[in-house]
Amino acid sequence: MIQKIFDRYFDSVSFIHHSKKRIAEDNIRNTGDLIIFLTCVCLLLLCLSFLFSGNYPVYAAQIVLCLIAAGIAFFQRVFLSNITESFVLTRIYCFIFYAWIILSYSYVDIIHNTESRCIFFPFAMVAFTAVYVDNFVETTWFKVLLTAIYGAMDYVLRPYYDVRKDIMIAVTAVLISCFCYYEIIDLAADKGEDRKRLVQRSTTDLLTGVLNKLSFEERCNEYLTNRIAGAKCVLFIFDLDNFKYVNDHYGHQTGDKVIKTFSQILQGYFHPNDVIGRIGGDEFMVLVMGEMPEGFTERRCRSVLHEFKTTTIDEASGLTCSIGIVEDTWGRNFTQLYHAADEALYKAKKSGKAKFCISESVL
To answer: Of 20, 41, 102, 310, which residue is the least packed, with the fewest Cβ within 10 Å?
Structure first.
């Protein structure tokens, strides 16, 4: 049991550590959503109090609190727009914001219910766990501090009321929120994994695991747009020779194995930071950015051609491919590079296949 608790604790720490940016954005967004929700509720209660109870000053005070909170949120959006870049700053802001909301509304609740039990603070402790995600230790200490302040405030404002019941309920709510914390973190982690798998399925080729055509083009456009003027890049196009014959003679299952094996060869010879994609049935592209040693392009092509030719897949052997290459330091965009590399590929195919050709076009 204890081991399971520790495992869940370290899983939560790992999840938050690897998702800080997204969690910070969600936490900030939830502060704005909370202001809208509380304002709508208070307006509704204010209208009802005018119609039935006549006890509108309490709800009017809550509206004032919401307006102040809205002012804080506006200040954050205008002057602290980049606050989510720092998880620590986001934490500090959210702690101040939620402390003000919880204690202010608890104060109104105490004043309004001088002879009866207050319910806002216990509810807020549980709700806080649902709207704010952070490490367990930090959030627990924050709840303990708020509970201590709430207990002192309740004792001072209602000296003739037995506040021990309110404090016991508040402590129970904190304990319940601690249990809820791990359930919420587990759900958030599962949701994050589902989102990651969905993104991966939408951006990668299912057979090979490399980028699909659309994602490859987007990634290349991003890299080429942000590259420094004069920086070198090399674009490769690989086209498997006689692939239709492989499918017809050995079967489509062998053909799929050939495609998968070739993608693994490319991933083995190129750096993980290089952009690799499958852009067609038997066509692959690789974009290499940055400075390269002398003769890099030729050596890389010869290595790929040699390994592919000496690899036997089922009964298929002697496999080859043709390669078109373009090297650029002139700042050409992806479309221009693609056109130049495709022309070089055509020349390689025309000269007898199983060869590589480097484009000589400049612009």
So the answer is: 310
- Counts of helices then strands in the chain (DSSP H, E): 12, 5
State the DSSP string of 85-138.
G-HHHHHHHHHHHHHHHHHHHHHHHHHH-SSS---HHHHHHHHHHHH----HHH
User: Which residue in 221, 190, 215 sits closest to 201, CA to CA?
Assistant: 215
CA distance 107 to 122: 13
Query: How many residues appear in the chain?
Result: 363
**Cα 29 to Cα 25: distance, rounded to the nearest angstrom:** 6
**What is the amino acid identity at position 160?**
Y
Query: Could you tell me the pTM of the whole model?
Result: 0.53
Give SS3 for 285: strand
- Cα angle, residue 219 at apex, residues 340 and 231 outer, rounded to 5°: 60
Rounded Cα–Cα distance for residues 87 and 93 (Å): 10
Query: Is residue 287 very low, low, confident or very high in pLDDT (cuts 50, 70, 90)?
Result: very high
Q: Which long-range contacts (CB under 8 A, 24 or more apart) does 265-274 make?
A: 265/304, 265/307, 265/308, 265/311, 266/210, 266/238, 266/304, 267/210, 269/300, 269/303, 269/304, 269/307, 270/300
- The structure tokens listed for 78 are 């205008």
Q: Give 79-114 pLDDT, tens digit per residue.
A: 666 777 788 888 888 898 889 888 888 888 888 777
Beta strand extents in the chain (DSSP E only): 233-240, 275-278, 283-289, 321-328, 356-358
281 in Cβ contact with 247 (< 8 Å): no
- Picking from 182, 142, 180, 131, the residue whose alpha carbon sits closest to that of residue 26 is 131
